[in-house]
Amino acid sequence: xxxxxxxxxxxxxxxxxxxxxISESDAFDPHVTISADQFPIHSYTLHDxxxxxxxxETLDAWFLExxxxxxxxxxxxxxxxxxxxxxxxxNAYADLPVHLLMIDYRGYGRSTGEPxxxxxxxxxxxxxxxxxxxxPVEPGPIYxxxxxxxxxxxxxxxxxxxxxxxxxxxxxxxxDSWTKRLVPxxxxxxxxxxxxxxxxxxxxxxxxxxxxxxxxxxxxxxxxITPFRMAEELHEKSPSREKSLVRIENGNHNDLPTFxxxxxSLIDFFGDN
Length: 273
Fold this sequence. Notes:
By secondary structure, the protein is an alpha/beta fold. It has a single domain (about 45-180, about 200-270), classed as Alpha/Beta hydrolase fold, catalytic domain (Rossmann fold), CATH 3.40.50. It contains nine helices and ten strands. The chain has an eight-stranded mixed β-sheet with strand order 2-3-5-4-6-7-9-10, sandwiched between helices. It starts with a helix and ends with a helix. Residues about 1-15, about 20-25 and about 180-195 have low confidence and may be disordered.
C-alpha cells in the first residue's frame, strides 16, 4: 500500500496538481426501480403513494402502516437508496410500534424530475407534509431518520419544523471535511477538489448545534466513506439532553441495519421517547 501511495505521489509531482471536480450531477446516483407489488412486506400494510411537490414533481412513496403503532418515522436514504433496497431497514424496524414512510427522491425510481440539492430538500419537505397532514392514519409524533447524504435532509427538517427526535446514520459533518478525508494527508498538496457551491454548502454541524430534540447517531467502525469520527463530532456538538452515540463493531457504510446492535439502538431510542 505504501508503495502505491509513493508511486501516486511521484506521478502527481511530475504531472502537477490534480483538480477533482464535483458537480450536482456527481452527487446523486438515481436508478429506476420495480413496483411495490413485487416486494412483499410482512407485518405491515403497504400504501403505495404519490406525493406532489411544491415545484410540481411527483414522488413515489411507501407508507408502511403497522397496527398499534404510535409514532411515524420518515426515512431519508443515502445517494444510492431506493425503496426497493429497504428490506434490511424494514426488518430492523419490524418489531417496533412505528409506522415507516419512505420516498424515492426526484429522478430516482419512478419519481419524476432530476435530482438537485434544492430539489431533494423540496422532496424532504413534501414527505414531512404528507406525514403531518395526509397519511391514512393518525401519525403520532414524527421522527426523521437520515442515512449518509440523507443525514443532511434529516437535520434540515429537524432544524426547520416540529419533530419529536431524529436519527443520523453514517452521517457527514460537512462536505469540505468529508472530501479532505477522502485523500491521504500525503497527497493533499497535490489534489484539489473543485466542488459546486450547492454541494459544498451542505453542512450538518451548524443545524445539529441548534437542534435540541432527542438524537440517536449510529456509525460503523469500519466505515471508510463517512468515518465514525464524523459521528463522534456531531454527537459532541449536539446540545440535546437526550442523545446517544452507537458504534457498530465491524459495521460498514451500507450494512448497519443488518446488525443486532442497530436494531437494539432503535428499540432503546424509541423506548425512551
